[in-house]
Structures are given as structure tokens and as C-alpha cells.
Design goal:
Layout (H helix, E strand, L loop, with lengths): L4 H7 L16 E4 L5 H10 L3 E6 L2 E5 L4 H9 L8 E4 L2 E4 L4 H12 L6 E8 L5 H18 L3 E2 L6 E7 L3 E8 H4 L20 H11 L9 E5 L5 H8 L3 E5 L14 E4 L3 H8 L7 E6 L5 H11 L3 E12 L5 H15 L3 E7 L7 E8 L3
Parallel strand pairs: 6-7, 6-8, 10-11, 10-13, 11-12, 13-14
Antiparallel strand pairs: 1-3, 1-4, 2-3, 5-9, 8-9, 14-16, 15-16
Helix pairs in contact: 4-5, 7-8, 10-11
């Protein structure tokens, strides 16, 4: 029985196990929305990557930028459509024992074995794939636990990723930030709220977390296209004072909520009225309006007038699926419009996005 992670880390170089060759640093397994696989593939192909599609939404790449570079490009929004990735650092036969896989995983972890670790995986094209994957995860987890590694499914610091194919198992270790998500495929699991007003609440919660935006108590927030009120509810719950703008009616569970002001008008009318002398400017603006991406960007150009310098913004750009070329043209045109008044921090197609992308931006200093 292994006594501690540190002991195993010292021991591993002496183990009589024939480890595989060092893997190509550009060999990476990437996940994306099935609906935007064409766009994700195009982004990767532009970087010189060779693509192998294992199934819709799951792409293995090689021959292009390293894992670290792909991650950086995604975190800065230069790559929009990737949701999760891991480096392929080991490849073993599918018949390999769980103990051998655990040993190899420990070697890959190295000093990271002192961190909180989650083991995640997927299986494709093998008989009883769910049972096989369960056995792999349990076997690796047991080996890591025996070595003193702290396993934690919720909020891990490091992720061990497994992809079990017909003949081989691919393994990789990465920190959560570089992997873009702690869940295989980029899934994000949020606590169920029995008082949920709309499913869009999860979209805002995810964007705030991914983009690292903190809503502080007393923050003056503007919610455009607020009905039925899911985003307004989330912001109020974080202590913001919210101005909700929408000609439609908000959910009656928001009636009388402290810190809420409701304007039953269009966003355009609200902005025109606001400019007539109101002094309070907003620290945060969110926009999930069901309008064309270009129209939404043009509206945000006007919204800039009621925002404080360096105010944060979260915007969803709705996309009409007519092919990757048109998707990229729409995004670039919307970004150019937003760039007039905002510093664009990141553009990502997140897990809770549907036919849209989320944009994090900051009002330019005046």
C-alpha cells in the first residue's frame, strides 16, 4: 500500500514500469458545443492543427500550437468555441490494469498531487463503455487515494482527464483554469434553485464565474431585456441594486424586492429618458436581449452613455446558424461596434449558451 503522495513521487522513477514515450505537446483533446463544431474546427484549422473528430463536439488535434497556447487563446477570447481541453500526455492500451493507469497518473501529477484533484472521463466506441469508464475512474481514484492524493469532485484545483477509445485510453493532467472547466466537455454543474425564475439564471452565473466578475453589495446594475427576471434575481441575490428594463412583465416573485427598480419600456426609450438629467451611472450592465447580434452591439454603444468609466458589461450575442463563415463575420462585426466604447476582455461560447456567445467587456475610460 502506498503511504503518501510524496513517497510515491520519489518512488516512481524507480518503478519497473515501461512508460510511454513523451507525447506531442500539441496533441490535445478539445470539446465544444455540437451545434458549433464547424466553427470550433475552423478556428483550430486556422492555427494549423490537424483534426480528428471522435464524435460531434469532441475533437482531437495535433500538429498545431501547444496545449498551453491553445488554452491561452481560449482564455483571452481569441478562440471562441472551445469549452474544455486536456493535453494527451499518456496513451495506453484499453486492456491496461487500473493499477498501471493509477501509477501513470501519479507520474503525470508530479508535485500537483499535493492539490485537490478530480478524475473525469468519457468513453467512446467500446463495449459496455459506461461500465468500463466507471471501472477506469474508480481504479485510478483508488490508486490516487492510496497514495495520499486528496480527491474532490467539487471545485478541484487539478483535473485528471480520461478518454477511453476502442483500443486505447488517453490520459492528461491539467489545472482547472487551463482546462477551461473542471468537467469533461466543459459542463458546469450549478446548485439547483427551487425558486428559479428562468433557466437563463445559470447562463449568468456561469459567465460571472468564467469571466471572473464579482458583483459587490450596492453595485448599481442595469439589466436590459430583463423579463421574466432571472438575471435580475441573480444580481439582487448578490447584493446589487438593479434597474430592470423590459416592456414585458417580470415574474411576480420579484415584486417588492429591495433594491429593485423596474422600467416597463424598451431599452432604447430608457436610454433616451435617462440622458435627460439623471445623475446615477451604472457600475454593471447586462444584456441578454433576444435580438440580432449586431442590433445588440449597436444598443450597447448607446448604453455606454449611462455607464461609469470602466463599468463591467456582460452581453450575449445571438447567432443565426447559416454556416461558420457567417458566424465569424457576425461576431467580428459586433466586436468592431462594441470596440468603439468598450475594451473587449473575452468572447466565449459557454456551456449554458445556446445559439449565442457571451461577451465580457469594460466601458472605456473617458
Amino acid at each position: 500500500m502506498w503511504r503518501s503522495c510524496a513517497f510515491v513521487w520519489r518512488l516512481l522513477p524507480c518503478l519497473k514500469v515501461k512508460f510511454g514515450e513523451v507525447m506531442d505537446e500539441s496533441r490535445v483533446v478539445c470539446s465544444c458545443s455540437e451545434s458549433f463544431q464547424e466553427e470550433a474546427s475552423e478556428e483550430l484549422a486556422r492555427l494549423g492543427c490537424q483534426l480528428r473528430v471522435h464524435r460531434p463536439g469532441l475533437i482531437e488535434v495535433s500538429g498545431g500550437p501547444t496545449y498551453a497556447k491553445l488554452s491561452e487563446l481560449s482564455q483571452t477570447g481569441a478562440l471562441v468555441f472551445l469549452r474544455h481541453m486536456f493535453p494527451v500526455q499518456e496513451e495506453v492500451g484499453v486492456e491496461a490494469s487500473e493499477s498501471v493507469l493509477a501509477e501513470r497518473t501519479l507520474k503525470l501529477l508530479g508535485p500537483l498531487c499535493q492539490s485537490a484533484v478530480a478524475v473525469q472521463g468519457r468513453a467512446l466506441g467500446i463495449e459496455a463503455s459506461n461500465d468500463k469508464l466507471k471501472d477506469l475512474i474508480q481504479g485510478i481514484s483508488a490508486g490516487l487515494t492510496s497514495a495520499g492524493v486528496a480527491l474532490r469532485r467539487k471545485d478541484p484545483e487539478v483535473v485528471v482527464s480520461i478518454l477511453a477509445l476502442q483500443e486505447n485510453v488517453l490520459l492528461g493532467v491539467s489545472d482547472v483554469r487551463s482546462a477551461l472547466s473542471s468537467w469533461s466537455g466543459g459542463e458546469m454543474r450549478l446548485r439547483h434553485d427551487p425558486q428559479q425564475i428562468s433557466r437563463a439564471e445559470a447562463k449568468l452565473e456561469e459567465a460571472l464565474e468564467v469571466f471572473g466578475l464579482e458583483v459587490t453589495s450596492g453595485c448599481q446594475a442595469l439589466d436590459l431585456g430583463a423579463a421574466p427576471g432571472g438575471w435580475t434575481k441573480v444580481l439582487l441575490g448578490k447584493g446589487a441594486e438593479v434597474t430592470a428594463v423590459d416592456p414585458a412583465v417580470l415574474d411576480d416573485r420579484l415584486d417588492g424586492r429591495r433594491g429593485l427598480s423596474v422600467y416597463p419600456s424598451t431599452a432604447q426609450d430608457f436610454i433616451r429618458q435617462f440622458k435627460r438629467g439623471r445623475e446615477v451611472l451604472f457600475d454593471l450592465a447586462v444584456n441578454d436581449m433576444r435580438v440580432d447580434a449586431i442590433e445588440s452591439a449597436e444598443l450597447m454603444r448607446e448604453v455606454a452613455r449611462v455607464l461609469k468609466p470602466q463599468a463591467e458589461c456582460l452581453i450575449t450575442l445571438k447567432l443565426v446558424k447559416t454556416g461558420a463563415a457567417e458566424t465569424f463575420r457576425t461576431i467580428e462585426k459586433a466586436k468592431a461596434i462594441l470596440d468603439e466604447q468598450y475594451v473587449l476582455k473575452c468572447v466565449r461560447q459557454l456551456f449554458y449558451n445556446r445559439h449565442e456567445v457571451s461577451v465580457s467587456a469594460q466601458r472605456r475610460a473617458i
